[in-house]
Design a protein that fits this description.
The chain has 90 residues and is an all-alpha fold. The protein has one domain. The protein is built from four helices and no strands. It is elongated, with a radius of gyration of 19 Å. The N and C termini lie far apart (48 Å).
């Protein structure tokens, strides 16, 4: 029985599309699920310390967020992926 059955099914589909052998599929599933677990642990750490998050990030254009809230308009927030974030800092 899988811990995350929906995720395992999704990853098995990818393994099929990639043409992985059964051994490669097992390795792919294991590494992918470890990555999802690690990501979850990192997010949990950030949620426990919102002050830390506030010190680590820079928000540009917050006035647009405030204006949309005042106007009752929709808003799309886009966060730069952490891996590439250093490319976009001044």
């Amino acid at each position: 029985m899988a811990v995350w059955p929906a995720e395992v099914d999704f990853l098995r589909h990818f393994a099929t599309v990639f043409g992985l052998s059964p051994a490669e599929t097992r390795r792919f599933l294991g590494l992918s699920l470890q990555g999802w677990l690690w990501r979850g642990l990192c997010f949990a750490d950030l949620l426990r310390e919102p002050e830390l998050v506030a010190r680590l990030i820079r928000v540009a254009g917050w006035e647009h967020f405030d204006q949309c809230r005042r106007d009752g308009a929709g808003l799309i927030l886009v966060a730069v992926h952490g891996q590439f974030a250093r490319l976009f800092r001044p």
